Amino acid sequence: MPLPALITDHSTENLIMSNDHANPIPAYMRVFYALCIFTILTVAAAKMLHFPESWGTPGDILHVSIGIVIAVIKVISVMYIFMHLKFDHPMLRFFVYVPVFLFFVMSFTLNFLEKWHYIR
Amino acid sequence: MSAALNLSHEPVTKVFHGKVAMWAFLASELMFFSGFFGTFIVLRNTNYATFGEGSAHLSWPLALVNTFILIGSSLTMALCIYNLEKHNVKLFRLFMGLTIMGGFGFLIVKYIEYSAKWHDGLFPGQEHHTIFFSFYFLMTGFHALHVVGGMIPMAFMFFKSYTKKGYPYPAKVETLGLYWHFVDLMWIFIFPALYLMIPYAAAGAHH
Q1: Which chain A residues have a beta carbon less than 8 Å from that of B196?
Q2: pLDDT tens-digit readout, B142-195
Q3: Interface subset of A 61-80, CB within 8 angstroms of B
Q4: What is the ipTM of this complex?
Q5: CATH placement of domain B40-200
Q6: How big is the A-B interface in CB pairs under 8 Å?
Q7: If 0-12 CB within 10 Å is exposed, 13-18 middle and 19+ buried, where does residue A45 land?
Q8: Domain locations along chain A
Q9: B104-129 per-position pLDDT tens digit
Q10: CA of B128, closest CA in chain A: separation in Å?
Q11: Domain ranges in chain B?
């Protein structure tokens, strides 16, 4: 019965590499610029966007939500392009989406539900 | 006749096994940080004044510098992987070196921040310590440890590339790259949560 000749082969021959597609550098640069712009937007939204004091807790919810939405856009950009999810196997994408989705759901629900009794 | 069995990747999807393992690890890391974020949100919503005062005490311009450093190092890491896959060793070294320097830059800024907190008596056990600063040190401290944890294998790969054999494993560098981008992703959340989102009720006094 034939035995495997090599069971610890670390060669990457036959391996699908994430950069096998066309030149990714323009996409990397676009994501980099987008991340810089969204970072400035995050600071601007936090420091310059003032809701009336009378809005109280709903104003805070809106304030935090804007920050979370911008962060989510940045995270998706990094995961899709820098972390190559756009080009990876669909199985891997599903594997990643579940914990990331749960994390976002947790952030949003905690932020809203915890404040619910202050709003009423 | 014996057939070579390549265990470095899954035979059908051809995804590098190390990469799948790294994604599994990162998923568990995300859950680890979720505990911090979840508790942070709950406590923030019931301690507006304490969290407002604490957040206003932090230096957001220094954190902004660190954000740009991490974004830059994410870009250099992506370029580093691309160049190794194209067998361009010189550019691989250049971008790997820049990524390591980015990590050092981040830690230097973090040291400056922590020093200021030490002088202001905000460390655990010191006079002006509050629960906000427990979260601040916990979240930024663990994040900084992750930065160090990424820099060690990066330094190994960088110096190994100067040896006669070089470092001909782009799949491993790509796997490490996933980790480094994750460190950047966590900072994307930590930065606004700690430094920018001053509770609205307390904002009037600090804006």
Answers
A1: 42-43, 46-47, 67
A2: 999 999 999 999 999 999 999 988 887 888 999 999 999 999 999 999 999 899
A3: 63-64, 67-68, 70-71, 74-75, 78-79
A4: 0.87
A5: 1.20.120.80
A6: 181
A7: middle
A8: 25-119
A9: 999 999 999 999 999 999 999 888 89
A10: 25
A11: 40-200
